[in-house]
Amino acid sequence: MKVAILGAGIIGTTTAWRLAEAGHEVTVIDSAPEVAQGASYANAGMIAPGHAYPWASPEALRTLGQSLLGRGGRLRITAPVDRELLRWGTLFVRECSPARARRNALVKLRLCEYSASLLHRWSEAAGIEYAAQRAGGLYLYRTTAGLRAAYAHSELFRAAGRNQVMLDAVQLRKHEPLLDSPPGREYVGAIFDPEDSSGDCAWFAAQVKALAEVHGAEFMLGRTVVSLIGRNRRVTAVRLGDRDLEADVFVLALGAGSARVARSIGERVAIYPVKGYVATFPLRSGAPTPSVAAVDQDELIAWSIRGDRLRMATGAEFAGRSTALSPGAVEPLLDLGRRLFPDLADYGRGEFRVGMRPMTPDSVPVIGRARRHENLILNTGHGHMGWTMACGSAELVCDLLAARRTALPLASFAPRWR
Ligand SMILES: Cc1cc2nc3c(=O)[nH]c(=O)nc-3n(C[C@H](O)[C@H](O)[C@H](O)COP(=O)(O)OP(=O)(O)OC[C@H]3O[C@@H](n4cnc5c(N)ncnc54)[C@H](O)[C@@H]3O)c2cc1C
């Protein structure tokens, strides 16, 4: 089949590779000059099923209220509350009940676990290097009450088979000796998930692109998707400004750009771009490096080592379509890096980028056939965990097109919200 994949982030490129390998004639379109230049470049790099909790939860309601009052810390609403944000926010609030939060967490956990196992299997089989760090994930707390609450919360994932443990301050420093410094001792402990890992998402995507090309995939980069064109419940072509490209099947994987293009043909996906910030610092030669990817749960800052660089990420800003680097946004990353690991990196030579998370109200991606157009497949809305979920999502799409039984029920990811 002739398949047009819209979007060359981690979701689009991974899907392109699987479909090209399965024998489809694949064309990938993206406005950026290279693959994985959007959120798939600007992320913390964690492959973290153990952290698959959705953002919508009973506690999130309180954080949201504080943000609306301008006291949201790392979660900020800076865009005017227009119809799009209001609709998304209303749907988000609906997902905050304990029952919905629990259901969404388990759906995400299964996809994350499936995806991480494929990522590890495929990268070993195809020899894909991605600066993998496979020593687990640490979720750090500064208060005993916070740590205990997190451990109680993790019961959901432990009951679902996740082998998570609570570390006290002494055990934590054994796992991560670099935290045995006065600032590191601020952490009273951590939740440790030994199966979480980290790696360079954009590097992985670049290699997957090359593998897809070996199977004949064509990448049309630097080309903007203007709209979709349809007739009789089918998409017939994608409009690229100067020309229309026809195909048998269209896969929508435009990340935060998906909702606008879907709307051009009357399909609705509730995806709001949530801005985050990343910093990459070159490591100083010979400096001991953190061995485990980690998240400071109070500061909401994540970090991982990728080869000879330290990557840090933070921020959740509802800023509309603005991709500007807000003044002061990366200061918390510099502050924490300098305090925790003063000798690790050259903080004066940081590279700073913005990423737009394609967030759905329930933090569960949308994977499956569009409601009104049977040959339009959605693979989008991976929010804050698209690197973790990419391989599994690609395989679900591949199985869907092959009319094979999928490893996870597609009903859990089907287009929802009218
Ligand atoms: C700060 C931050 C930290 C994160 N940390 C993690 C993490 O630790 N672990 C994890 O699993 N996930 C993490 N994520 C989430 C993850 O990065 C995203 O979920 C994932 O990258 C989404 O991939 P995507 O391919 O859907 O989107 P993108 O990578 O954004 O790709 C979408 C592509 O579509 C293109 N595009 C959009 N509109 C158009 C158009 N009209 N025409 C042509 N091209 C278009 C863009 O150029 C882009 O290349 C993080 C995200 C952020 C922002």
Describe the structure.
- The strands form four sheets. Strands 4, 5, 6, 7, 14, 15, 16, 17 and 18 form a nine-stranded mixed beta sheet that branches.
- The chain has 418 residues and is an alpha/beta fold.
- Strand 10 and strand 11 form a beta hairpin.
- The mean pLDDT is 95.
- The chain has eleven helices and 20 strands.
- Helix 1 runs parallel beside helix 8, helix 1 packs parallel to helix 11 and helix 4 packs across helix 11 (386-401).
- Residues 7-12, 29-32, 36-40, 42-46, 224-225, 253-257, 261, 276, 278, 302, 313, 355, 357-358, 380, 382-388 line the site of flavin-adenine dinucleotide.
Helices and strands, with pairings:
Blueprint: E1 2-6, H1 10-21, E2 25-30, E3 46-47, H2 58-68, E4 75-77, H3 83-94, H4 98-126, E5 137-141, H5 144-153, H6 155-159, E6 165-168, H7 169-175, E7 189-193, E8 197-198, H8 201-214, E9 218-221, E10 227-231, E11 234-239, E12 244-246, E13 249-252, H9 258-263, E14 272-282, E15 293-296, E16 301-306, E17 309-318, H10 331-340, E18 351-359, E19 366-369, E20 376-380, H11 386-401
Parallel strand pairs: 1-2, 1-13, 2-9, 4-17, 5-15, 13-20
Antiparallel strand pairs: 3-8, 5-7, 6-7, 10-11, 11-12, 14-17, 14-18, 15-16, 16-17, 19-20
Helix pairs in contact: 1-8, 1-11, 4-11
The protein binds flavin-adenine dinucleotide.
Describe the structure using short key phrases.
single chain; 418 residues; alpha/beta; 9-stranded mixed beta sheet; 6-stranded mixed beta sheet; 20 strands; 32% helix; binds flavin-adenine dinucleotide
